[in-house]
Design goal:
The complex is a heterodimer of chains A (about 375) and B (about 325).
Chain A lengths: L1 E3 L7 H9 L3 E2 L7 H10 L6 H15 L4 E5 L10 H11 L5 E5 L6 H12 L4 H28 L8 H13 L5 H16 L13 E6 L1 H5 L7 H7 L3 E4 L3 H8 L8 H10 L11 H13 L4 E7 L3 H17 L3 E6 L5 H23 L1
Parallel strand pairs in A: 1-2, 1-3, 3-4, 5-6, 5-7, 7-8
Chain B lengths: L1 E4 L5 H14 L3 E4 L5 H10 L6 H15 L4 E3 L2 E4 L8 H4 L1 H8 L7 E2 L2 E3 L12 H7 L3 H22 L5 H10 L12 E6 L2 H4 L2 H4 L2 H7 L2 E5 L5 H7 L10 H15 L5 E7 L3 H17 L3 E6 L5 H25 L1
Parallel strand pairs in B: 1-2, 1-3, 3-5, 4-6, 7-8, 7-9, 9-10
Helix pairs in contact in B: 1-7, 1-8, 2-3, 7-8, 12-13, 13-14
Chain lengths: ~375, ~325
């Protein structure tokens, strides 16, 4: 069984999990213009952008031999929870003979979930599965820690591109992980690699910090959000995202209350503006903006796919938050029509504004 | 006390309940006027640009009510009317959106959380919190809701006799009997569309009347029995998350199978998220079953002639197909 998965963020993590369970893994190529074109061609015109990109990346994975796709479902009420069904229908209609294993909330269909788990488990003993999960979780934590550090460093690198190059190298070296000891070793090596990058010295008062919030896919997937982290870094801003895969695992998959603490804390912050969880990450978006403002960030970039249902609600509320907390927020809707030059110009203007803000504040 | 109810969104499904409820409580119910271009323009200015037309229209109606001297505006947070299903995220976040984006709205919105197990949302527990804000007793709420429920049930019963929501509303609230369709009925078309798209004349440009004038009998989802519709989706592995979208899709599937339905028109607003998925599902399945299916996407720029031309062409096509079939037989 040749298995593939949707492309999002640091894919080496999903790849590793399936590999450690003994599957033959077909890694989908990083989304390119072709991926987007393919997805757009076969998706409903008004479907949200992630659905299109993921469809495109499925098609590309199928082209290079994938037979089974493993993905997560959802319980709504945003459209993301229905991706699996829609993709299946579209791919079948296109003539692909493909098996999509969608992991929904287990409460919805307990027997079905057990069956799916057994299929993905691939006949391995539970001990192996547990070890695989532990290794991959440690890997996600390590990678996210490194990525966070890079987000801060990039703004001050002397040779443009050093950090990005190091990041590529680190991701590749994590590909060799077999055990949890490997993870620790490679993590240490990676930090040493980062220590060697030459940085400019910038006094604390001149540091600009930007938070990135919004819908998980466009926030995490750099190939479709115009590499926003690199762009902001090259414009001289430290970047922190609202979504990291290990945090998603903590909140959605890891049992126990302590793992959920951070997310609940963020949700609490959003309460004032959005009372209920309305699907997607709208409430988290609002909560994170408040959190960033309170932590003294200089600005927030809000990313959303065009016509994303929950994020439209948060977008409507953002001007009020921005005023209440005196923090600049820029919203960038992203879809197949987004032009790089347009976004770059807007971000440059945004950065100028923030820099001026800071100057007048300190002066 | 004056309670404003915007003539938008679920007004077209729950107004008889809400109106009777508030009037029995002793409040005066003020309803915003029909959607006009002017009102829509105001709504557009107050909304984020990418949001769907129905929400822009709602914002327009709320602004109109804010300008009049109502004490409160009733805008419930619609969460769920079926176990495990929800409303579109925009409905669920609607009170938050309105309170924080329209100036002056913050303290005027009454928004009980509506979360019930069936279409009947007159469970008194849902309204107690609101009652405290209005200064009425729980007993009052209970009795008024009982009245409201009666009228609403009557409204739904009448709807199911092939009358549109507007006709049924006129009947139960004003006792006005609808006019009989005078034209000869040649074909029957299933019309898929949310109540706030189909019955807002500015959005759908009176598509029901236009079709009727062409001798078409129009069936919409709210004319069908809820339980029957629900069963229609049993074959689906995973139902959609949105109750009204499920109703729409179920009606669509029913139309596809029903021999007496000659064609299906799907009216959808630009940027409607759930509809983008329903549309695709219907597109694939209608082709398989060979039933004519057309999507009309409307937004604030749609022209009337364009709509008229497309329906005429669609109806002509079905008519010809049908008469050819009869000749050959």
């Amino acid at each position: 069984m040749k298995v593939s998965f949707p492309y999002m963020g640091t894919t080496v993590i999903y790849k590793k999990l399936l590999e450690l369970l003994g599957h033959e893994v077909i890694e989908p190529p990083e989304p390119t213009q072709r991926t987007i074109d393919l997805g757009v061609k076969y998706s409903p015109e008004f479907a949200c952008f992630p659905l299109k990109v993921v469809l495109g990346s499925y098609i590309e994975a199928l082209e290079i031999g994938a037979e089974t796709l493993v993905t997560s479902g959802g319980h709504g009420p945003c459209r993301a929870g229905f991706y699996g069904e829609t993709h299946k229908k579209i791919l079948e209609n296109m003539g692909y003979d493909v098996d999509i294993i969608v992991f929904d909330g287990y409460k919805r269909d307990i027997m079905g979930t057990i069956k799916k788990v057994l299929r993905v488990k691939n006949g391995k003993p539970w001990r192996t599965v547990w070890k695989a999960i532990k290794t991959v979780y440690a890997m996600a934590k390590a990678l996210d820690g490194i990525e966070k550090r890079i987000g801060q460093m990039r703004a001050y690198e002397i040779h443009r591109g050093d950090c990005t190059k190091a990041w590529q190298k680190i991701k590749k070296s994590f590909d060799d992980v077999k055990t949890i000891e490997d993870v620790e070793r490679i993590e240490k090596e990676s930090h040493i690699l980062l220590d060697e990058i030459a940085l400019r010295d910038v006094p604390d008062s001149d540091r600009l910090r930007i938070g990135i919030v919004g819908e998980i896919y466009v926030v995490m997937e750099q190939s479709i959000n115009l590499r926003i982290e690199e762009t902001l870094g090259s414009l001289g801003a430290e970047v922190e995202r609202s979504q990291y895969i290990s945090e998603w695992i903590d909140f959605n998959l890891k049992p126990g209350a302590s793992a959920k603490e951070h997310e609940l804390y963020i949700l609490k912050k959003g309460e004032k503006y959005i009372q209920e969880i309305i699907g997607g990450h709208a409430k988290q978006t609002v909560g994170h903006i408040v959190d960033y403002a309170e932590r003294g960030f200089d600005g927030v970039v809000h990313l959303m796919p065009f016509a994303c249902l929950p994020e439209l609600v948060s977008q409507s509320i953002i001007p009020t938050i921005s005023k209440d907390y005196n923090i600049p927020v820029i919203t960038l809707p992203i879809d197949e029509q987004t032009g790089a030059a347009n976004v770059l110009t807007r971000l440059e203007a945004f950065m100028d504004l923030i820099r001026n803000n800071k100057k007048t504040k300190t002066a | 006390m004056k309670i404003g109810i915007p003539r938008a969104l679920l007004y077209y499904y729950y107004y008889p309940l809400w109106k009777t409820f508030f009037e029995t409580l002793g409040c005066e119910v003020i309803i915003s006027g029909k959607t006009t271009i002017d009102l829509l323009d105001k709504g557009i200015k107050a909304s984020v640009s990418d949001i769907c037309v129905p929400i822009k229209i709602l914002n327009g109606h709320v602004l109109e009510l804010l300008e009049s001297d109502v004490d409160y505006i009733f805008l419930p947070r619609m969460m769920s009317i079926r176990k495990g299903e929800f409303f579109c995220p925009k409905f669920m976040g609607l009170p938050d959106m309105v309170r924080h984006s329209l100036p002056g709205a913050k303290d005027k919105i009454l928004f009980p959380n509506i979360s019930s197990l069936s279409d009947d949302i007159s469970d008194d527990k849902l309204y107690y919190d609101m009652g405290q804000r209005l200064g009425v007793t729980d007993k009052n709420i209970k009795e008024s809701l009982k009245e409201g429920r009666k009228v609403w049930n009557e409204f739904r019963r009448f709807s199911k006799e092939d009358y549109t929501a507007l006709e049924a509303m006129d009947y139960v609230l004003e006792g006005k009997l609808p006019e009989k369709q005078v034209e000869d009925i040649n074909i029957t078309i299933g019309l898929m569309g949310y109540v706030y798209d189909v019955y807002d004349d500015l959005v759908s440009m009176g598509i029901v009347d236009r079709l009727r004038k062409m001798g078409v009998k129009v069936i919409t989802f709210e004319m069908m029995d809820e339980v029957m519709l629900d069963r229609e989706l049993d074959s689906m592995k995973k139902r959609l998350f949105w109750t009204f979208s499920n109703k729409l899709l179920a009606a669509g599937y029913k139309f596809l199978k029903d021999e007496s339905i000659d064609g299906i028109i799907h009216v959808t607003a630009f940027g409607c998220g759930p509809d983008s998925l329903i549309g695709k599902l219907m597109e694939i399945d209608s082709e398989k079953l060979g039933k004519p299916f057309m999507t009309i996407r409307v937004d604030e720029h749609t022209g009337e002639n364009h709509l008229q031309t497309r329906i005429e062409a669609f109806v002509d096509m079905i008519y010809r197909k049908k008469s050819k079939y009869i000749k050959e037989a």
